[in-house]
Amino acid sequence: MHIISFASGKGGVGRTTLVANLGVALAKLGKRTLLLDGCFETPDLALHFKLEKAFYTLNDVLAGDTSLSNVVQVGPEKVEIAPAALTLEQIKKTKPERLSEVVKEIDKKFQYVLIDTPGGLRRDTVAALRASSETILVTTPDMVAVSDCMKTKLIVEFLGIRLKGFIVNRVGNEEFELKTKEIQEILNLPLLGVVPEDDSMSEAIRKGIPIVVYKPSAPAAQAIFKIAKKIGKS
Ligand SMILES: Nc1ncnc2c1ncn2[C@@H]1O[C@H](COP(=O)(O)OP(=O)(O)O)[C@@H](O)[C@H]1O
Ligand SMILES: [Mg+2]
Question: Cβ neighbours of residue 43 under 8 Å, at least 6 residues apart?
Fold first, then answer.
């Protein structure tokens, strides 16, 4: 089982969007895939799917009030999704550190577990990283995001988690953007793929349908399928 955390120092670079779409793309390749929303303070993975209002969430699993099987919902291509809670009451009682234990109990039928990891370097970030066996860094082609990724890379190395590589998202090929080659020189990690800036992305999110299902021919969807193939091979 590959347990992969999707991390970045900075928010808004596309971690959640990539977890949702790569999850569906991996499932489409026939890989049994589970997505965990590790962003307990800003949970928004569920917004990418039209899910039923959850009675129990991952927060309740961490609190020991229920089991993961009561939380998981099925999305496109039979990808399975464990949303986190949206209410302040539930968020407050959450112990992110328990995520590692919960992950250990995941059904072995799953080949891939993707964890949407919060930005920053707080305890919930570290908890999501620790629960994983590999990390993929996500950045946009700008210095702030790349430099924040460097900080995350150091933490990941410190925790002894394997760095699988990085993805550059929202690439518009504007003159002011960092080139992928420059980013690779800074991060010094394998490049897993480049996802272009795509107007259809926000449309897909508004509809609650991942772009790989909503508009599979869109350039961002095509790029995501390519990355999924790469991840699925390892
Ligand atoms: N390739 C893309 N093209 C256009 N917009 C994108 C792309 N990837 C993500 N976005 C947009 O960027 C915003 C932030 O993405 P999100 O996945 O929530 O980032 P994070 O989880 O890293 O905070 C979202 O509104 C999403 O619509
Ligand atoms: Mg997010």
Answer: 37, 57, 83, 84, 85, 86
